[in-house]
Design goal:
This protein is α/β, with parallel strands linked by helices and 262 residues long. The chain has 2 domains: 201 residues, Alpha-Beta Complex (2-enoyl-CoA Hydratase, Chain A, domain 1), CATH 3.90.226; 48 residues, Lyase 2-enoyl-coa Hydratase, Chain  A, domain 2. Helices cover 48% and strands 17% of the residues. The strands form 2 sheets. The chain has a 7-stranded mixed beta sheet, sandwiched between helices. It has a 4-stranded mixed beta sheet with strand order 5-7-9-10.
Length: 262
């Protein structure tokens, strides 16, 4: 396990990398140092074909990420605040567009920017003690890391407006019921559940998953015909790959395929 200024821990396991937000004394809240550490890691992961999935979680048992570090925020000039918002917005777009699945392991409180990190991930698995919410309006601001755009796309406009307008916090069960998270589990089982997801992802073709993610992310922003064209182009990328031939051969030989991302 390595550290980046001690605010982000990285651990490689089972062809996945676990990024742990490591500021437990302040509920893993986000400051500039943590933003930069995550950015540096995400940039490197783009060129790591051996890594099949990324898991983001928080240090300790109580908090995933409580949002922006308000103590730091109170010392920032308006221009610095603008820089912070732009930095987190760009970072979460990088997370969303990363060429491999990103799983948020929500191990406790995830408010404001914490929920926005989860929203930028592809899959969200929460422990039963998780609490989520875009609470910014209670501080007379609005979500600035993409929350106003990603939340309604995931759970629908009406429910998103309710949660953002009220700044309401919801528990894991309600988050699951409104499709904000994919799955909930006991706290002690959280990482095991994430690794089970990684195991299933590892059985698929890497290029296929990358192209499927691309087609979904960009197609959902368009009309159906344009989305179908994006899907068609993404499919074309998979046709000449060695993995596609391997998949067919493995099916014929009644064995598990061995994909190499080629």
């Amino acid at each position: 396990m390595t550290t980046q200024e001690n605010v982000l821990l990285t651990k490689e396991q089972n062809n996945a990398i676990i990024l742990t937000l490591n500021r437990p004394k302040v509920m893993n809240s986000i400051n500039f140092a943590l933003l930069n550490a995550i950015k540096n890691e995400i940039e490197k992961l783009w060129y790591r074909p051996d890594i099949r999935a990324v898991i983001i979680t928080g240090a300790g048992e109580k908090s995933f990420c409580a949002g922006a570090d308000l103590k730091e925020r109170s010392t920032l000039s308006p221009d610095k605040v603008k820089k912070f918002i732009l930095t987190i917005r760009n970072l979460l777009t990088m997370v969303q567009n990363l060429n491999k699945p990103v799983i948020s392991a929500i191990n406790g409180i995830a408010l404001g920017g914490g929920t926005e990190i989860a929203l930028a991930s592809d899959i969200r698995i929460a422990s039963n003690n998780a609490t989520m919410g875009l609470t910014e309006t209670r501080l007379a601001i609005i979500p600035g890391g993409g929350g106003t755009q990603r939340l309604p796309r995931i759970i629908g406009i009406a429910k998103a407006k309710e949660l953002i307008f009220t700044g309401k916090r919801i528990n894991a069960k309600e988050a699951f019921n409104i499709n904000l998270v994919n799955k909930i589990c006991e706290s002690e089982d959280l990482m095991d559940e994430c690794m089970k997801m990684v195991d299933m992802i590892k059985q698929t073709g890497p290029i296929a998953v990358e192209q499927a993610k691309y087609a979904i992310n960009y197609g959902i922003e368009t009309d159906l015909n344009t989305g179908l064209a994006i899907e068609s182009n993404a499919y074309q990328v998979t046709i000449p790959t060695k993995d596609r031939i391997e998949g067919l051969q493995a099916f014929k030989e009644k064995r598990k395929p061995v994909y190499k991302g080629e």
